[in-house]
Design goal:
The chain has 305 residues and is α/β, with parallel strands linked by helices. Helices cover 43% and strands 16% of the residues.
Length: 305
């Protein structure tokens, strides 16, 4: 029997409905929640992400502004702009889109954002609170993953969870969130010995390694919850076609469009083993923006208590 597909779009829509209600409640008190998204340079992917985030904010009644700077902007100029946004009482959330140009130290920029406006959840202060198990603005993608797991109706407590990938943005905070929910957590990475064997022990498997179709069916425990954080673009080639030989739909897209989006999990084969699984696209992606909007309204509520 095939796994149940977890519908990230539907779950994100339910979160957005809650955000709208909370935004309306704030507006009744004369408070307009607001987020400013900062982009430096003309990276095409960043341009799309920034535009989508600002547009979604406006759809939900949040004031969403984009600040776009040329690729040659100096680090000092960006830090000054972030400091200005920190001091602007009308702004509840600040997000600086990554990656930044090489002349700018992203760590310094993130550390300059006021923790109570850090809606990405990347500031060391918020990271520390997360790992202490205390309330904070948590990173959006891991937060969305927890919501997706909860949607299955399965309890996280007591489960064996394996996170493949140890990035500061997804892997490490993901492990902290699962640990806070009383899962037994293992983080795997490129140096993990016999990674497939470790993955097969997981009741909950989160793949966030950035390698297309890396997680095979043989790495999945029967009935496991499989969350695919990966977003990889394959270009048409014999290698790509070989990777997709079990997924007729993706293969057809590749041949007709010349490119296709896939996750870190071999979805077509994994779904025959897993109990629940997220698709790519339509799984984790919509949740990330929904959780960003949720963080923004929570930041506004905290700042106006």
């Amino acid at each position: 029997m095939s796994a149940c597909t977890i519908d990230g779009k539907a779950i994100a829509a339910s979160i957005e409905t809650s955000v709208r209600r909370r935004v309306d409640a704030l507006k009744c008190r004369g408070i307009q929640p607001a987020i400013t998204v900062v982009r430096v340079g003309d990276d095409p992917a960043s341009e799309i992400y920034v535009r989508n985030k600002a547009r979604k904010a406006r759809e939900l009644g949040i004031a969403g502004d984009e600040l776009i700077f040329p690729a040659g902007l100096t680090e000092e100029a960006l830090l000054a702009e972030v400091a200005r946004l920190n001091g602007d009482a009308t702004i509840d959330g600040i997000l600086v889109q990554l990656p930044l140009p090489p002349q700018i130290n992203a760590t310094r920029v993130i550390e300059t954002i006021a923790p109570d406006k850090d809606v990405d959840g990347f500031h060391p202060f918020n990271v520390g609170l997360l790992h202490l198990g205390r309330a904070t603005l948590a990173p959006c993608t891991p937060g969305g993953v927890v919501r997706l797991i909860d949607s299955t109706g399965e309890t996280i407590e007591g489960k064996r969870a394996v996170v493949i990938g140890r990035s500061d943005i997804v892997g490490k905070p993901m492990a902290a969130m699962l640990l806070a929910r009383n899962a037994t957590v293992t983080i795997c990475h490129s140096r993990t010995r016999d990674l497939p064997a470790v993955a097969r022990e997981a009741d909950i498997l989160v793949a966030a390694i950035g390698r297309p179709l890396f997680v095979s069916a043989s790495m999945i425990k029967p009935g496991a919850i499989v969350i695919d954080v990966g977003m990889n673009r394959l270009e048409r080639s014999s290698e790509s076609e070989a990777l997709l030989n079990a997924d007729g739909g993706k293969l057809a897209q590749l041949r007709s469009r010349g490119t296709v989006l896939v996750g870190d999990v071999d979805f077509a084969r994994a779904r025959e083993i897993a109990g629940w699984i997220t698709p790519v696209p339509g799984g984790v992606g919509p949740m990330t923006i929904a959780m960003l909007m949720l963080n923004t309204v929570e930041a506004a509520e905290r700042r106006h208590q």
